[in-house]
Amino acid sequence: AEEVNYKHNVSVVLKDARSVIATENATYINLSGNSGMATAGSGDVLTGILAGLIGIGTDLNLVPALGAYIHGLAGDIAAMHISKESMMATDKWKKDKMNINEKYFRCYATVDLDNICYNMQLMRRNITEKTNLIAVIKTDGYGHGAVPIAKAIDYMCYGYAVATPEEGHILRKHGITKPIFILGYVPHSDYQLIVDEEMLPPVFSIEDAKELSKVAKQSEKVAKINIASDTGMSRIGYIPSKDAVDEIKEISKLENIKIESIFTHFAKADYKDKSSANKQLNIFKKFINDIEKAGV
User: Fold this and answer.
1) Are the beta carbons of 70 and 49 closer than 8 angstroms?
2) Interior angle at CA 193, CA 215 and CA 229, nearest 5
3) Do 236 and 204 form a contact (C-beta atoms < 8 A)?
4) What is the pLDDT of residues 130-148, one digit of tens each?
5) Cα separations in angstroms, 91 against 32, 84, 104, 106
6) Are 75 and 33 in contact (CB under 8 A)?
């Protein structure tokens, strides 16, 4: 540890039953912890503790020793409750406390695609035939699997909504060809990707629209966009106003840009009291009406 510390000028933590920490100022042997800490997997926990200490602004000179000490204390507490021999999943497996005939040795979630399709069918029944459904499957379908869900409900959907261009890219790689709407802010560095793969970013500034227009023109493509409107969620989007209408009209005139749609996010749509959602809806409808009157 001291050799690596000296040679590369970095703090070193050698994780074991008794972790060794070598820093610029001193070398420590951590006395908290036990032999259970030497098994595979506990190093991931230690890494998380060190990263957390750095994230909250802890003095970098203190992070290695403090992190190892906290890690050891956690191991001691775990040993008191479940014994040193049963702290890791691999130990449980060795003791045949898990069913080795199962495909997964830890845990898994069973997702019923038939139930998801049924839920979508119920929603489809409650809207008119002319109303399109866009399935929100961001963050890997909220952990249920964006790709298999998208393929299962594809026949019912106009398109899909995801949080980031990267999530949209995964859908495209798996053969999803329908419109993909990005719900979160898209940095300029991702504009080439969304133009190439024909995703619809949220736009709420003339500066972003001009940059996207530039990328689309260079690629000889037309970038379709989704105007974001903030009617009460207070995250992203134009706050409805005359200035916002004027700017959207200016965006509509940019080369290689096509305004495909406009959206807003209802802050309390799932509340029993719909007064807040109805207020947002009225603001949204008026905003759309003002935009249309402006000739967009």
Assistant:
1) yes
2) 80
3) yes
4) 999 999 999 899 889 999 9
5) 21, 9, 15, 12
6) yes
